[in-house]
Structure formats: C-alpha cells, structure tokens
C-alpha cells in the first residue's frame, strides 16, 4: 500500500540549524531534539494507512489508528507532540496549563500529552454529553449546523491553552452526492474554531492548535485564529480526500 505521506515533507519541522530563519545555530541539546523530532515524524508517517473510496467514492481516507495499536508508535507520537509543544510554546512558566481535546479522536492522545506536559486535560464534546453548566459554540458541517460544549469550570481565566485533534480536515467528506470541494472552504476548521471560541469564552489564553496530520490542499489553518502546528502533512493536490 502506498505510503500516505512519505513524498511530502512535514510542515513546521524543527530546524536543526536555526530557530527563526536567521543564521544563529541551535545549541547541541536543541540540535539533538531537532534530530529526534525528525526521526519520530518519519516513523509516524510510515505507519499511516490510506483507504481509497472510504467512506464514500472519491475519498482517500488517512488512517492514524495504527499508531495507537502499537505501544512503541504511541509513545513516539506523544514524544513528538511533547517536543513540538516545547519548541513552539516554551517550557516552565511558558508551557500550556491546559490541553483541550476535541471529540472524539482528540481524546486518543490529548490526556496522554497533558500528563506528559504536566497540564490538565479538558474535553470538548457534542451536546448533552457533559454534566453541569456548559458553554456552547456552533460550527458548520457538510450537512448543517452542529455544536460543541465545554464545562464552564474546565478552564480558569488566564490559563494557557492548546487545542488538539487528529486531522485538521476531520469529518469533511462527500456525502450523498454533495460536492465536498465546493463546500470545503466554508467547512474546514469549523470544529476546531468552535473549540477555540469556547476557550476564549472561559477566559483562557489560546496559544494555538496542534494536529497530527494536515491535508495541505484544504488550507484549514487559514480558517483558525491562532497558530497552527502539525506533525505531518499530506495530500497536497486539490482532490476530494480526508
């Protein structure tokens, strides 16, 4: 089976020689982390599987589940995410206080990442799944409007927050003959943006979004109002894929 992303370089890879595009060299420890990050991303990329025409004809489905079926790959994912967060957002007092995970695949690795970072984990869920007082935000899907909710006491004002999910284009695909590409610009990033609005409603400081995989041709990051960081990138051609 075709390697899903081996022909595409990952976005936002740690640069082994510079930190900001200048000629300033990284310290030996930073160079080591950059090399480790690169090796981890290569390992993760090789583990992805692709399924043509799933769940509907014309869609090339990117399957991340093999990562979680193997303990070594799972650990590699959490380590790669930890390195990415440290590089992008800092450590110590600068690190995130809270990791917010989107239902449902953000729950697969969000709690583990939060534990590794020494941060709390807060889920964002579909309506009716969370007890107590909640805040609600709407977003558009291919078949209409949907909602996300978060518990009102999940985030304290001023806490530093990152939002995690598996794929920046999750949930967008051809349904009942609807042309996915015609609606993609309006739909991409909607669920993540809704989660971001919930963080802000609670007074959290949204540092950015972290995704395992980005489908580049959909330009989902352009729809989000905070920095977007991904481990892997794929499918740069403009075709109907998820």
What does it look like?
The protein is α/β, with parallel strands linked by helices and about 240 residues long. Helices cover about 30% and strands about 25% of the residues. It has a five-stranded parallel β-sheet, sandwiched between helices. A two-stranded antiparallel ribbon has the order 1-2. Strands 5-6 form a two-stranded antiparallel ribbon. A hairpin with a 7-residue loop joins strand 1 (about 50) and strand 2 (about 60-65). Helix 1 crosses helix 3 and helix 3 (about 70-90) packs across helix 4. It starts with about 25 loop residues before the first helix and ends in an 8-residue tail after the last strand. The relative contact order is 0.16.
Layout of helices and strands:
Elements: H1 28-47, E1 49-52, E2 60-63, H2 65-69, H3 71-89, E3 98-102, H4 106-117, E4 120-124, E5 134-141, E6 144-151, E7 160-167, H5 180-187, H6 190-201, E8 205-215, E9 228-234
Parallel strand pairs: 3-4, 3-7, 7-8, 8-9
Antiparallel strand pairs: 1-2, 5-6
Helix pairs in contact: 1-3, 3-4
